[in-house]
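Researcher: I need the complex structure. Ligand is flavin-adenine dinucleotide. Inputs:
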Amino acid sequence: MSKVLVIAEHNGAALNPSTAKCVACAKQVEGAEIDVVVFAASASAVAAEAAQISGVGRVLTVEREENDPAIAALLAPQIAALASSYSHVFGPSTAFGKDVMPRVAALLGVNQISDIMSVEGPQRFKRPIYAGNAIVTVEAPADSVVVATVRTASYPAADGGNSATIENTNIDAELPTHTRFIEVQTGQSDRPDLQAAAKVVSGGRALGSEEKFALIYKLADKLGAAIGSSRAAVDAGYVPPETQVGQTGQIIAPDLYIAIGISGAIQHITGIKDAGTIVAINKDEEAPIFEVSDIGLVGDLFSIVPELTDALD
Amino acid sequence: MEKILVGLKRVVDYNVRVQVKSDGSGVETDGVKMSINPFDEIALEEALRIKERGEASEVIVLSIGTADSQQQLRTGLAMGADRAILVQTDESADPLTAARIFKAIIERENVDLVILGKQAIDDDNSQTGQMLAAVWGRPQATFASAVSFDGNTARVTREVDIGLETIEIDLPAVITVDLRLNEPRYVKLPDIMKAKKKPLDQIPFADLGVEAAPRTKEIKFEPPESRQRGIMVEDVAGLVTALKDKGLV
Ligand SMILES: Cc1cc2nc3c(=O)[nH]c(=O)nc-3n(C[C@H](O)[C@H](O)[C@H](O)COP(=O)(O)OP(=O)(O)OC[C@H]3O[C@@H](n4cnc5c(N)ncnc54)[C@H](O)[C@@H]3O)c2cc1C
Ligand SMILES: Nc1ncnc2c1ncn2[C@@H]1O[C@H](COP(=O)(O)O)[C@@H](O)[C@H]1O
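Model: Output:
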């Protein structure tokens, strides 16, 4: 009998959509009972959200001052302490999950399964390697706990409408003081979140400057889209790092992805393989991005993008 | 601090478009260009800069793998590392075993700081640094885009999904690096010559007294589902029509 523990990702006030995606993956583990655990200073709001996710049996809350904000070195021993009553421990393959889950796995003496794209059996999973150029089916050792991250782009969020029970739990794990949170700087914007957005407009090196990137913002605003970028655009300082899409940035699955002045390096493509429709605008008709695009337009972005923005009135 | 230890993994070069073998037993690596994992070059560059600022006295590079990894270690020495260690295994170690090997070397060498890549671009695991921090019982600062030191503490800015997070950690500690931390230097020819004389210790895995972790079995490899090339439109009007047809605008 499988029992899956899903680690909730949240910001103290609201649940991150990655959690419902992890639950969707957990539901693929046959006959699994699914619990979600919320680590927070005060967990009630987040726990109430988690309790609505379909498929969740119980929501556990672990309330400690030290859990706000979440720090991997402090969370890991608490998660490891809970893990003994579970066959699987899942977290999202977001920056949060990638930071904490391997630390949990090591405390439990197992390797982690990174980026599950499908569940093939209780210990058997598919995952991408080599920037998504190969898919490998892996099998975790029998009789050992499976610690894994879920590739969020592979799973639509599990539905709401549930009302799971919420239970408060105490864990006495001694927590280290060697790691201290200082601050987080976020490029505050009212634009949609890149992970959650249905539409993403993404700009590359071709934009040429931070100022000219305004063209991308204008089009995105028209579409109600989130902003994405290539590594080259981030490295050149046109846009902040959290907009980078790709192997080492964010892996996303919007309904519509518009790549503008992006060549389509494998490291970039791997971040958008699960998009519904890919549109490419590039002046080079040989650009590899066209090989994976559903709709391609060859031409100069500096005339096409303003024209497109106007045409969408 | 005294010693910094840097991981250098030998991986298929990032420019190679990797192919799955037709029998599904693995990916084609015969005759394929191999390099230092790009994140590990950034890790080494950072270590060298810390040493050059006078904040550390020695930079040691460690690779776990077959004898072929000597090439990547020599490149690391040419970049400026002082010494290299190769822990010899038949194949590359899984992340937990690699973490245990790093810990064994840390104990031998009394290391103050370990800098690793945030992920190896072959298996895309992104585990080893976090696991090392766990088995060592020390802080981890993953996905670093800026690092500075004040005595026995480090301040690390991390690339996270919502922006940049800054944390403070006590040394000894593990840092894993992201792309924006620095731009690695190029190796110059005279440095390659000099690197040949720098020490490169080889230690068979069996001599370390490290227990290998239970291994995740690789059952089969397959190519990804490929996306089909779609249509080309002539102009903006054509694009808008195509988007409307799909109900996207
Ligand atoms: C370890 C590693 C990890 C990486 N991870 C990522 C990642 O996560 N995400 C990522 O994106 N990259 C990543 N990269 C980088 C990747 O290899 C490419 O270098 C990068 O994606 C290129 O960005 P680009 O397409 O914007 O720039 P370029 O490749 O320079 O392409 C610019 C494109 O713009 C077109 N263009 C120029 N002017 C115009 C114009 N006026 N109008 C229209 N089109 C124009 C050109 O034809 C060209 O196709 C990684 C690389 C490494 C080594
Ligand atoms: N076999 C190895 N040899 C040297 N360093 C390694 C090895 N495996 C992992 N590492 C280090 O750990 C980082 C993360 O690797 P991974 O967890 O496999 O994605 C790499 O960037 C290296 O710095």
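Model: Summary of the prediction. The radius of gyration of chain B is 21 Å.
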